[in-house]
Amino acid sequence: MQPLEVVIPGAPQAQERGRIRRFGRPCVSCKQPRHSGIYDPPKSAAWKKHAAAHMLVSRKRAGLPVFDGAPLKLEVLAVFPCPKASHRVHKPAEREWKTVKNGDASNVLKAIEDAANGVLWVDDSLVAWPTIRCVTAAQGEEPAVYLRVSVLDVDDVPTSFAARPEVSHSPHQPLGAGRVAGSKA
């Protein structure tokens, strides 16, 4: 099956911690509300809705059904906006690895997987091989999230870390443009 590629324009959003809402009549003895519920923070919920809309359009355009049953490989390239402090006139800032602020890579991946539930796949438990790379955009480059989803087959099951050649990626290469370590390029 052909891999599905999705581009979500705009800055990536890390999944924020769920918020607790309390409601109902207070308990007579302890004065605490009787019921509580957890809700998604507005910023995370809005980004996931935006991402799900782009995922749905890409899936329908590719003519693919919702992935169901087969293990999946998810590759993510999250391009964060270039900070204003990095803008230069003579030598524009280049794309670089992102390691600080705006949430860590695992929370960005979590938001993407949650947004794709019911849109790209039935449940995010189908993702058996997630990879994510977070970079800061070059000066003038628009922030975005690039996804590639493919079905894993039996040949992809690793037996150890040494079973597959190591792939080296640079933040300057597009998704999937890594070269195999030890090969002549």
Fold blueprint:
Layout: E1 4-9, E2 19-26, E3 33-39, H1 42-62, E4 72-80, E5 96-97, H2 105-116, E6 127-136, E7 144-151, E8 167-168, E9 179-180
Parallel strand pairs: 4-6
Antiparallel strand pairs: 1-7, 2-3, 4-7, 5-6, 8-9
Helix pairs in contact: 1-2
Task: Explain the overall architecture.
The structure is a single chain. By secondary structure, this protein is of the alpha+beta class. The chain has a domain at about 5-15 and about 35-150: 2-Layer Sandwich (60s Ribosomal Protein L30, Chain: A), CATH 3.30.1330. It is built from two helices and nine strands, in the order E-E-E-H-E-E-H-E-E-E-E. It has helices spanning about 40-60, 105-115; strands spanning about 5-10, 20-25, 35-40, 70-80, 95, 125-135, 145-150, 165-170, 180. The strands form three sheets. A five-stranded mixed beta sheet has the order 1-7-4-6-5, covered by helices on one side. A two-stranded antiparallel ribbon has the order 2-3. Helix 1 crosses helix 2.
